[in-house]
Amino acid sequence: MTADDRDDGPVTMADLVAEARRTRKRAIRHLRAEPELALALRRVLYTDRDAEVRAAAAHRLGELDLEPLAASLAGSLESWLVEALGDHAPLVRDAILRALAKRGSRSAVTAVRAVVETDRVWWVRRTAVYTLAALAGADEVPAFKAVLFDPFWRVRHAAVKVLAVLGARDLDVRDEVIQAPATPALEFLRASWGPVAVEAPARAATGTSLLPAALLDPDPAVVTARLLESRDTSPVALVEMLCDPHAPLRILAAERIAESQDHAALVAALDWLEEPRVPHVADTVEYLLDHLGDPALAIAEHALAQPTRTGAARWAIAWAVATHSETLYDAALERARTDVSLRRFALRLASNDELLAWADGSLTDAIAIELHERHAYDALLALDTTHHPAAAALQIDAAARGDDWARVEAALADPHHGPRAIATRWVVRTHRQDGTAQLRDPDPAVREAALTADHAAALVADPDPWVVRAAIEHLVVAWHGHSDVPATVAHAAQRALASTDPWVRAQACRLPITGQLEQVIAALADPDEMVRSAALDALEHAQNLDTRLRAITASPPGGANPPHSTSGSDVARRMIHAWLHGDALPAVATPPIVTTPRAPRAPATVDHRAFGRAGFTVAPLAISGAFDLSPAGLRTAADAGVNLWFWEPAYDNLTRFLHPRAADHVITGSYHADARSIEADVDRALRKLRRDTLDVLLLFWTRSPARVDPAAYAAIAHLKRSGKVRALGFSTHHRDLARTAIETSPWDVVMIRHSAAHPGIETELLPTARELGTAVITFSALTYGRMLSGPHAPTPADCYRYSLSQPGVTACISAPRRRDEVVENVDVLRTPILAPEKLAALREHGLGVRAENQRFNALLRQPTRDAAAAARELLATELPPSDEVVQRPLPRPSPARTARTNLGKTRTRR
What pTM does this model have? Predict the structure, then answer.
């Protein structure tokens, strides 16, 4: 157990069904590896409502070593992970891919290759590239060559890295790759195998933009602000903005196009669907088209009439199915018949016979679901489900409904839990078997299926928390309202009242209380309100309890506790005393949970630096909440002396942590360029942080002088004058832009990239900032982890020290993921300055990191290294980007523009 969780008590299997997400994640991480945990994690992976929890389950399944415990079960983990690869959350798909890479099962290669080829999220495809390399290596060279044409450069770069490793140790692979058609990525790769690496050639822009010059500014926030002010832009020209990484800009463009109802623009937008892997664009276009209402019919007709436009047809078929547009059914079916890739979206339109004809391996499960929903049981039973256990389970249900009991009973021995559980449920509920044998099944899904009221008492102590919940529910249904119960049920109720799962304890209170009266009384002081309420309700509705209650409360309140007393029994006794004497129940009926507050620890004494001319000082290391650092990690940083925090509204843990820390300083910002939106962001931050003033407001990700020119400063200067903000600034990667901005306007602070690999600000910005009294906050000191690789690589702490050693740097931002990283990084505060010889060594190392050829040389230094191991190293260092993990939904359209209000809800493929 890590220090992050040490003060939270032991974990139990019941924590997997806890209401709090953090509790479930903690249990996933720390429960002991055993077969019961693996089976429980399968259920979490398939059913938990929270994507972060499902991702945590996938990670743990990748780490479990069950060979000593259950060799046969260990082989099932890969199949569970592959079955879950269709999860709608990219965070979960990424976690599953990493787990498959750890487990190293070649049975997953086909599924992983499909993710490489089709997933819409670039960082999921990148992970899939590395996973495919870890699982199959040189066997998948054709797939890696295809990735060199991926529309996103980071995915192409992943393929280059993999092929570089493979080609370094296998000349046949190198020859095969070199024969491919020339692309910039391939030229870059070829150079990595030669004596000198060269920079990748820039791609020439294709086509001419239809946008006016004012909307071609490199800063999308500036473009958004200008577009808000003008309505003269052609809707057709706005189509190119639908792929912009800046969400406000692409959404505004989509809204303007929708408002225009311009047929040419809407048809042009369809072209984006031909390459859905371009980041964000397919979701934006589908959002636009889905919410057009009736005008979308003409666009769908156009899409279906284009024989070479598969992406457009995919949307049109799905739209026709979701909106029941029968006039499109024939055209949609015809396209699906001629294009195999479209059939999945047209299943609802096809006849039963046609579905059977379409049932290749990739569609079998989806076709089985469709036939089952139609109650087309004969057709469902005709499917070949040999390698499709989910479809086979539906067949068992169909067989039962058709009275084919021989087939159902045969499925009781099926090696997969799905068909076995369905068969069990049918034979038990139709009383063909009593389920006794299935109650001993090693799989909890089968045990739960075998549950009846007669057997439920035996499973209250089951190791699986879902089985326990189902068992107590059976008991409540069977015995609630009875005056007495058999001894087995009473014993089960007593065990349930002692459960670590509060939901189970609450349900147990609904059973007849005669045999467990003392425990129900003790439950009145349970730490969980749900249990206290259930216990009180049980006592209020119980009959003839006065005699026993008087015995329990023989001693007056405040006296000695009775023999059965547990923590909280005195509270229960006072309640019962009032009850028996006709007094009002005391307010203590729902006692507050008493916790021992953590004793405040005095922060370590560190040397502070003046924050430019803003009038306050800060510790030189700032901590970002980007990776949802745990409360324990945040406390560790504060105890070490950190008093400067980088915050955005999605950083939930940091938000809660900052509420009582009014003396600490917060850096936040806005991605907008218009004054109204910026002020709205400020007001939103003040409300969420419960503050009257923001210490630092930055205009995030500045790429254009227009974003920070004197007019831009003047538009928001009133935020300082009104006291809402103490320091105004901006973040950027551009040194020249930053220097010019602070020379022409009184910006208080600049946040800019700086590391030993990117030292340009040391001569091009810091001297000017020192002269003007402008604070400088640096970020990317690790260069996205690349500074930490290669021979003689520095520690993260020394990378931060390098930046803090430069005169004029006020603070450096660190974004730790775990508490152990915090512990390492905050050591910077004790000694923030490096010795001159250490600075020189880091500069030399940074030169190597900066050059792409040096990065490839580092990758190829050991030409005989194992390609799978290299891919796993890349997986460990290239994690999902923090700004992409939490994907915010597109805004809901106004009712006036939504003719079909349920359209977004009926679509299931996103």
Answer: 0.80
